[in-house]
Design brief:
Shape: flat
Oligomer: single chain
Strand order of the largest sheet: 35-37-39-44-45-41-42
Largest sheet: 7 strands, mixed
Radius of gyration: 63 Å
Helix content: under 10%
């Protein structure tokens, strides 16, 4: 009798946690074909999901290793540390008819039985994963072949301390772990715990107590957090006994009471032996005591201090009299801290008041100056004469006219004839605008002072970079900037003028029109497709020059004015307006020097090109 095959001894499922970069994963079971192998992979943080975590066969290869032909998977790219790889098998159960119209062999039967064994192993694996089954229809409905959607609900196998519950989508039954003690309750309820529950996500509304030794439990209104507290007093104010909960709490006032802030007494106050201190302000009836000040708070209220019986009123160590004195008496001290009433007389005897008149000041005594020490006396002061310079005066008997200034003549002060402004403002100058009249002149920013032809001062406008003051005969100087002549450049900046020579000293002009009047000491570039006609200067000083350079395709021509001629070596143009010279090539050039003022121009050096003279 042949040995029976135990079909569930090698369930076709292997789950491996990858190391960093691992690519090869080996099972302990075989498969009929590599296409029957199914591979899943996920990170350790992900929940299992067969629908989204199945790996395409393009990302790995399948090999059958050893005599047992066990399945081995090799990923094309290494996995991350902690990734979870699940390898399983799905061998199809359909068969071809191998036993009709064929030569039957034992290998055919062995092959077919081997496939059936693999399928049975898979069935045993699925049964182990989902049994026992509940809520299954009389005819089992497996639903969608991939997702199982729409089929019967299968209950998962429970482990220790587990139960069943529906998932949040109401599509499946899943396991839930019971606490090891305490039973079940809603996880989102509010719980007061001695120590925090970990993980905290399982009890999101938990409120953990702080370490509870002794004391009282309290709640914070805004957050609802429950904690333990002890009752504590404040030194020199409130004493607390049994504040930790070991007995009934007892509150009492400190024997050396220090009350902060304002204390208001509505009735009789009896300190009863207590030392009350550190009171910021006390209101007692109509009396307010604050710091070093005692005031009455009722309108025009008195403050009465009355000792009992024969007791004295003692202020700052001085004993005041216990009874009122008589009219005219004064309070005196005996030098030992006792005050009393004393009548005038010895040592308070009348004494006469004397006076000494000054040179300018006289004193007149009124009242009863013979007994001035104890009687009313009046003084009348008079003034006479001038207050001299030696006594701090001016020595002058009159004041000057409005706007004049005091000045010394070596003996006394006199006043100027010229008048001055009584007030002036910043940045103004004083000058005589008329005889004996001094006035002020407002200044201008960044300007200079000038005068006109009559000598009246004024300020120029605000000066800019490079401006200089230039005089004008019989007129007010003006501000101007320097102008650059031919061959000169001028650069103006703050506080400086830079004058530089440029080029040859000849100013050059490019002429693109067909005519141009020439000026002495200038150069021209002819640039037109047709001939450009230049006319010699009507006036030119001896020694001045003109230059002409061809550029445009039309060339150039120099026409003459009446009485003028152009001399090229021994050849002269026709004298007068009919004479001229002209280029024969577009790039011909010439330089002419005025050798006779206004009339004769002579070629300086050799011309460039073949010049036509007519």
């Amino acid at each position: 009798m042949s040995t029976q095959v135990q079909i569930n001894d090698v369930p076709p499922k292997t789950q491996i946690t990858a190391t960093a970069g691992q690519t090869v994963f080996t099972t302990n079971w075989t498969a009929n074909a590599s296409s029957d192998v199914i591979v899943y992979a996920r990170s350790s943080a992900q929940e299992p999901d067969d629908l989204t975590q199945e790996i395409s066969s393009a990302n790995y290869s399948v090999a059958f290793v050893g005599g047992s032909q066990i399945v081995e998977i090799t990923f094309l790219v290494g996995l991350a540390a902690g990734d979870i790889v699940t390898i399983t098998r799905n061998t199809p159960a359909d068969r071809l008819n191998l036993y009709t119209n064929t030569n039957f062999t034992p290998s055919m039967l062995n092959q077919d039985i081997g496939i059936l064994t693999l399928v049975d192993q898979q069935a045993q694996l699925y049964n182990d994963q989902v049994a026992p089954h509940y809520n299954v229809s009389s005819t089992p409905d497996l639903g969608d072949p991939i997702t199982g959607a729409g089929g019967d609900i299968y209950l998962p196998i429970l482990g220790a301390n587990e139960g069943w519950k529906k998932n949040s989508n109401n599509t499946a039954i899943e396991a839930i772990t019971f606490p090891t003690s305490g039973g079940l309750a809603p996880s989102d309820a509010t719980y007061i715990l001695q120590t925090p529950w970990i993980p905290s996500g399982e009890l999101p509304n938990q409120q953990a107590l702080s370490p509870l030794a002794t004391g009282f439990m309290s709640s914070v209104t805004t957050t609802g957090i429950v904690s333990t507290r002890t009752l504590q007093g404040t030194a020199n104010q409130i004493n607390v006994t049994n504040g930790t909960g070991t007995g009934n709490p007892v509150f009492s006032l400190s024997s050396s009471l220090q009350l902060p802030g304002t204390m208001t007494f509505g009735g009789n106050v009896d300190a009863d032996g207590y030392n009350i201190s550190n009171i910021g302000q006390a209101n007692i009836g109509n009396i307010q005591i604050s710091g070093n000040t005692i005031i009455s708070t009722d309108t025009n209220g008195n403050i009465n201090l009355t000792p009992d019986g024969t007791g004295d009123l003692v202020l700052d160590g001085l004993n005041w009299p216990q009874a009122d004195g008589t009219v005219g008496q004064a309070v005196t001290t005996d030098g030992a801290g006792q005050l009393g009433w004393t009548s005038f007389g010895a040592p308070y005897t009348p004494s006469a008041l004397t006076k000494v008149d000054d040179t300018n000041v006289t004193l007149t005594l009124g009242g009863t100056p013979a007994t001035a020490l104890l009687q009313a006396v009046s003084l009348t002061l008079g003034w006479s004469g001038l207050l001299g310079v030696a006594r701090g005066g001016t020595g002058a008997s009159t004041v000057g006219a409005n706007g004049t200034l005091a000045q010394s003549n070596g003996t006394i002060y006199t006043f100027t004839t010229a008048t001055y402004p009584s007030t002036t403002t910043a940045n103004r100058l004083l000058y005589s605008s008329a005889t004996n009249t001094v006035t002020d002149l407002a200044t201008a920013n960044s300007a200079t002072l000038v005068t006109n032809a009559s000598g009246v001062p004024s300020w120029t406008s605000s000066m800019t970079n490079g401006q200089v003051l230039i005089g004008s005969t019989g007129a007010t100087p003006v501000l101007a900037t320097l102008s650059a002549g031919p061959g000169i450049s001028i650069a103006n900046s703050a506080g400086s003028i830079t004058i530089s020579g440029t080029g040859s000293g000849i100013g050059w002009t490019e002429v693109t029109g067909t005519t141009q009047a020439m000026a002495a000491d200038n150069g021209y570039v002819s640039n037109n497709a047709v001939q450009v006609v230049f006319t010699a200067p009507v006036t030119a000083a001896f020694g001045t020059v003109i230059n002409l350079v061809g550029k445009g395709a039309g060339g150039w021509k120099i026409a003459q004015n009446a009485g003028q001629n152009i001399q090229i070596g021994s050849t002269s143009s026709t004298v007068g307006a009919t004479g001229y010279i002209e280029s024969t090539n577009r790039y011909d050039s010439i330089e002419l020097l005025c050798t006779t003022a206004n009339t004769t121009w002579t070629v300086l050096g050799g011309p460039q090109g073949n010049i036509t003279v007519a």
